[in-house]
Amino acid sequence: MASQLFALCFGAHQPLPLARFWSEVLGRELTDDPRDGITLPPADDIGFRLRFVPSQDRKVGQNRMHFDLTSTSPEDQRQTVATALRLGAQHIDVGQRPEEGHVVLADPEGNEFCVIPPGNDFLAGCGFVGALACDGTQEVGYFWSEALEWPLVWDQDQETAIQSPRGGTKITWGGPPLMPKTGRDRLHFDLAPPADGDQQAEVDRLLSLGATRIDAGQADAGWVAMADPDGNEFCVLARR
């Protein structure tokens, strides 16, 4: 069995206020767990949690990951945007064209996200968090498909996407050209080894797929810092 996508982790200057923002936008309960910290558990049994951890790293450039939030109607899209703005989001320009119809915002710590108009066939049935859209190569899409054992649901013109066999949020990679990597990743995956495996065995398996070990100052924290073939950081946690 493969790793479980345990969480998408946000490095935040103020974890609790940022978690409250996303709790309100996504309609998820906020928990402060002694082991996992400030967390938004998934809304159902096919999603993944969001974790918010302290970080003093300055945001430099655009994140390599962002949420695409879906809408059921034009009014629903407007309402999502209005709610996010009321909670502290801002409109931003990342080169989007007016005819594309999606609204690009940044949360209170500058993390980008999009609110997609209704009628998007690719995100149909994926839920409110329709996609985690990533900057990345076809190779990295293949890597994560094998790492998580999630099937490819799109593989065309160097763009790839994967989705859990149970459905839910898609993870997409847009292909080249890639944005330059600037500093530490503010968003990264936390993986949990399979229930019948151990951390070292899973690290070895991910290395065989093309990952590398990195030094993220973890020392004896109990988790292993790694990077995928595009250099995106992720962590392998101790067995849950």
Automatic annotation (TrEMBL):
<dbReference type="InterPro" id="IPR041581">
    <property type="entry name" value="Glyoxalase_6"/>
</dbReference>
<protein>
    <submittedName>
        <fullName>VOC family protein</fullName>
    </submittedName>
</protein>
<dbReference type="Pfam" id="PF18029">
    <property type="entry name" value="Glyoxalase_6"/>
</dbReference>
<dbReference type="InterPro" id="IPR029068">
    <property type="entry name" value="Glyas_Bleomycin-R_OHBP_Dase"/>
</dbReference>
<dbReference type="InterPro" id="IPR037523">
    <property type="entry name" value="VOC_core"/>
</dbReference>
<feature type="domain" description="VOC">
    <location>
        <begin position="125"/>
        <end position="239"/>
    </location>
</feature>
